[in-house]
Amino acid sequence: MYASIIVSVSASDVNKVFEYKIPDGLTDFIAVGHRVLVPFGPRQIQGYVIDIKNEVGYDPSKIKPITRALDVKPVLTAELIKLAKDLADYYVTSYISVIETILPAALKSKSKKMLSLSEDSTEQTEVIWHGMNLPPKIEVKTLSARQLAELKPLIRRGEVEEETIITQHTKKKYARALKPTFIPRGDFGRAYKQLELLDFIEQYDEHVLQSEVIDNGYTQGTINELVKKGYVEKVDVVSGRDPYKSRVFEEDLPKELNAEQQNAYDKISHSVDHDLAETFLLHGVTGSGKTEVYLQVIQKVLDKERTALMLVPEIALTPQMVNRFKARFGDDVAVLHSGLSHGEKYDEWLKVKNQQAGVVVGARSSVFAPVENLGVIIIDEEHETTYKQQDRPMYHATEVAKYRSKYYNCPVILGSATPSLESFARSERGVYTRLELNHRAVTKTLPETKTVDMSEEHRKGNTSIVSEALREAINLRIGRGEQTVLLLNRRGYANFQICQSCGHVPNCPNCDISLTYHKMQHSLLCHYCGYEAGVTRECDNCDSDDVTFRGTGTEKVEETLRDMFNVDIVRMDNDTTSRKGMHEKLLNTFENEKIPILLGTQMIAKGLDYPNVTLVGVLNADTMLNLPDFRANEKTYQLLTQVAGRAGRHELSGEVIFQTYNPEHYAIELAESNDYAAFYEKELAFRRLARYSPYYFHVLFTVSHEQVKKCLEATTHIHKELVDSVTDKAIIVGPSPSPIERINRQYRFQILLKYKSEPNLIDVLHKINEYYNERYKKDKLSLKIDVDPKYIM
Ligand SMILES: Nc1ncnc2c1ncn2[C@@H]1O[C@H](COP(=O)(O)OP(=O)(O)OP(=O)(O)O)[C@@H](O)[C@H]1O
Ligand SMILES: [Zn+2]
Ligand SMILES: [Zn+2]
Questions:
Q1: What's the complex ipTM?
Q2: Are 377 and 410 in contact (CB under 8 A)?
Q3: Which structural domain range is residue 748 located in?
Q4: Engineering a disulfide at 600: which of 90, 366, 512, 604 sits with its beta carbon 3.0 to 4.6 angstroms away?
Q5: Looking at residue 567, which CATH number applies to its domain?
Q6: In terms of domains, do 281 and 427 share one?
């Protein structure tokens, strides 16, 4: 018997399937989906069995045998193997890169090369070995060059053995536990505490965690006494790592659905009942109770003994969502959290794989969760760009979800208050079934929204970042004990440093971008590569000492607000939330301590559902408008609508204020009037004119290298390939420098291909990719082929 195997080598020129013989002892054991160790050139590497067959097309004596199996049960199913193949094709990447994206990092191989004395070693060799003070087994990379040179001939003669050991990232986590020995009790004298503790521990047949004993008020000293006397033994037990374990969730019962929710639920139910792979676009205004629909559909799926996959843009940003799922379904929920360690992720993955969880909640990569028997896949906030991976494989979770839904014949639900233009267009054409929730579930009405023209405000003499209207509104909330959410989409203190005499702005030496001033560190930082420079009093360019800071970031606004209102403020941006668990901590503080103001970057715009928030202010609604990307308007509309949606979601009604320098821009005007349909029409007209998605599909090629010359050479070649192979209906834009011309010392050039229908496109893309592998990869030139890109930057 033979196995077809994909080997774990990252270079895509080995994007090939290799054949190995299954050793006789393993023929009943090795199955499709197993990880195995195989000889590959001089090395032993990890591979994945994707097929098993009785014969091979060439001389079987040339085929090497599999060294050993790495799993007891296969880690991949036939479905996931096929999925990996198709995605690798579509997104022009290697099979192995998709397989290793599907599996948790803990299952990826890490190999170590070890040396040891072989059985044939001579006495002389042993003397050399021991003379170097080497242990029986030594890792090659720990040897010095001299040692290695001395050992080389011995390795060649076979006196020293070389062996590759595959180590796994996963380490089982152990916890200290106490185990009763149940030996007859002697006299405890007056050691009542010890007696009491022994009673406590003897309630457990197996063992009890030491942490639990201590939580119950016993001390380490008392424990040690019992151990010394032999009544108790200390043991290490493998602990599950469920990070939500210690938390108590208040049980949440299904709510009675309103008419719109009921209609949506019924339509989706129909698909579930009839095993239809239908894609729904659940377009519901903010606070309309989309989540309640998800929860009840999932309940239905569970009742049919099928499983559910629930994707959210980012778990850390949506602690409330996770809590609602835990509260409704309890232990039946596995949370695949990006903040988990490799080991913790692996535990959750296993829980899903072993079918111990009916509901999987997670971010983008959870779309690959090893669930079987799927009943529904839900993608909340479907318009979010985080669903597209920006590294290879550059897949979009929605595409993967649709693919899996076809395999399992189950519906996909895409939910959003601000659907992506592409999804809405599909619902217009009937490719997706649209379901509308036009009213809020509790308040029924959306918050009252108004726009303040900041140029006007300046003319009136108010140069502060807070307009008169917003200031009054905040004061009103403070007086009433209600809360305000303020969005400023820019972190740091001042935006940049500028010389008032010559206009010089310090740039990052590695990237084509100005440095941002951070007051806490008192330094200038590059947000792209992390470059840090000290702040100088004199201009680098003209030596004038007339340098100042312009623009405002969250750090500075926090200060301004404190001076202005004299209240506590919670600030959330990348700087305050970089430590694990900080998102949730800050949000809890804001909620529980009723802090008057939450100030943050776009991370505060979505998912929050706090009854006491009645005012939302956007300090600068224009930041997204200036992005060098054709989706700038769409992103502006989405961000404003989402953040506005945080106000007045419950009994108290809400108010929203947008501050802008472009009060007449349609993205801002229509966000103000909350008119998605009108925005869609307007934006669609622009896209048609400019020939962008959803009228055209896109492929973006980005080439980067230290030298401009190399970038030009490679993009010119790609351009020629494209011209030769696509139809004349396709449009090729470029080559041109990317909007950010240099990041991290690498120049960047791009070509944008726009097309409607190109039957041979996938072949052309693979051809270009292979040419690059042969010709440019060794030059350290990087080529990214982004199919259906979400950014054109
Ligand atoms: N049928 C219902 N009866 C009573 N309350 C409901 C009902 N449906 C939802 N709610 C409540 O309405 C509030 C808003 O609902 P939810 O958070 O699900 O909205 P959403 O559409 O997901 O919002 P967003 O897109 O803004 O995050 C929640 O507090 C929820 O508990
Ligand atoms: Zn100057
Ligand atoms: Zn930089």
A1: 0.94
A2: yes
A3: 697-787
A4: 604
A5: 3.40.50.300
A6: yes
Rounded to an integer, what distance in angstroms lies between the CA atom of residue 348 and that of residue 358?
12
Ligand 1 and 617: CB distance under 6 A: no
Q: What is the DSSP string of 684-705?
A: HHHHHHHT-TTTSEEEEEEEEE
Query: Is 519 within a domain?
Result: no
Kindly report the CATH number assigned to the domain that includes residue 92. 3.40.1440.60
**Token duo for residue 376:** 């529904």
**380 in any annotated domain:** yes
Domain identity same for 325 and 394: yes
Which residue minimizes the CA distance to atom 1 of ligand 1? 257
Same domain, 379 and 290: yes
Ligand 2 is a single-atom ion; what residues have CB below 5 A from it? 499, 502, 504, 539, 541-542, 544
- Burial (CB count <10 Å: 0-12, 13-18, 19+), residue 203: exposed
Which 3 state secondary structure label does DSSP give 513?
Answer: coil
User: What DSSP line would sit under 712-736, residue for residue?
Assistant: HHHHHHHHHHHHHHS-TTSEEEEEE
On whether both 12 and 139 belong to a single domain, the answer is no
Q: What is the pLDDT of residues 8-36, one digit of tens each?
A: 876 655 568 899 999 887 888 888 999 99
Identify which of 442, 485, 676 to mutate to test ligand 1's pocket (most ligand atoms within 8 A of the CB): 442
Q: Looking at the whole model, is its pTM more than 0.95?
A: no
**Cα 261 to ligand 1 centroid, rounded to whole Å:** 10
Give yes or no for residue 323 CB within 6 A of ligand 1.
no
- Indicate the number of domains in the chain: 6
pLDDT tens digit string along 481-524?
A: 999 999 988 755 556 777 777 777 788 787 667 777 777 777 88
Q: Is the pLDDT of residue 244 over 60?
A: no
Q: pLDDT for 89-115, tens place per residue?
A: 999 988 888 998 898 877 776 656 778
Is 368 found in the same domain as 278?
yes
